[in-house]
Design goal:
A hairpin with a 2-residue loop joins strand 7 and strand 8. Helix content is 30%, strand content 26%. The chain is built from 5 helices and 10 strands. By secondary structure, it is an alpha+beta fold. The protein has one domain: Alpha-Beta Complex (tt1808, chain A).
Length: 206
């Protein structure tokens, strides 16, 4: 059994946070959920997500990102029919939802339900949330991890393409995940009764 890496999420992520601070602009437009909805009405063909007041484009993806997502869809849709959503909006409770409307790469729901005809799934509906990370590692590991922890997402995976591994975050408390496990390419990661060999998500190395 893998031992959670708790040591510390704070120590390990300090460099990420400092770098993020340096990269922030002194002045920036902070978008709200309502403003983002109006923008979407004006540009219906654009796809973006709202994360802590920032609009992030979701248009286009590079081949490795698309490949990993395709493999995940095949594996998880077979294992959890009717419970997998791909690049579909989730609803966060206020106050987080005022400035954030994430569009995660994939979620696995606890159950299939007609309720989702009327509303987006919320944190209470999500068994697993996945972000496929190539160029977005800092945002996925820092900004989104804190956001998802604050909202109570119980299990959050980052599929880290450059290093061909999975980071699994659990035990959200006080706005942070207090457990992180790293699954390398030769290892298996599980959700429910389903086990996935990490390297099966990636193309063969040349």
């Amino acid at each position: 059994m893998k031992t959670p890496i708790i040591k510390d999420m704070a120590t390990e992520t300090l460099a990420f946070r400092e770098k993020a601070k340096l990269q922030q602009h002194d002045r920036r437009k902070v978008w709200t959920r309502d403003e983002a909805a109006k923008l979407n009405d004006i540009f219906p063909l654009e796809r973006f997500e709202l994360i802590e007041g920032d609009l992030i484009s979701k248009m286009g993806e590079n081949p490795p990102h698309g490949y990993v997502l395709m493999v995940l869809i095949r594996i998880l849709s077979d294992a959890f029919p009717g419970r997998v959503r791909v690049q579909s909006q989730i609803g966060l409770p206020d106050p987080e939802g005022i400035l954030s409307e994430p569009l995660p790469d994939m979620v696995v729901l606890h159950r299939e339900s007609e309720e989702f005809f009327e509303r987006h799934p919320g944190p209470q509906d999500i068994a697993l949330l996945i972000e496929v990370s190539d160029s977005s590692m800092q945002t996925d590991r820092e900004t989104k991890a804190r956001l998802y922890a604050r909202c109570g997402i119980q299990l959050y995976w980052i599929i880290e393409i450059p290093r061909r591994r999975i980071l699994a975050f659990q035990n959200p408390r006080a706005g942070e995940y207090h457990s992180m496990m790293i699954y390398e390419a030769h290892e298996q990661v599980s959700i429910g009764d389903v086990s996935i060999r990490v390297d099966s998500l990636f193309g063969k190395k040349e």
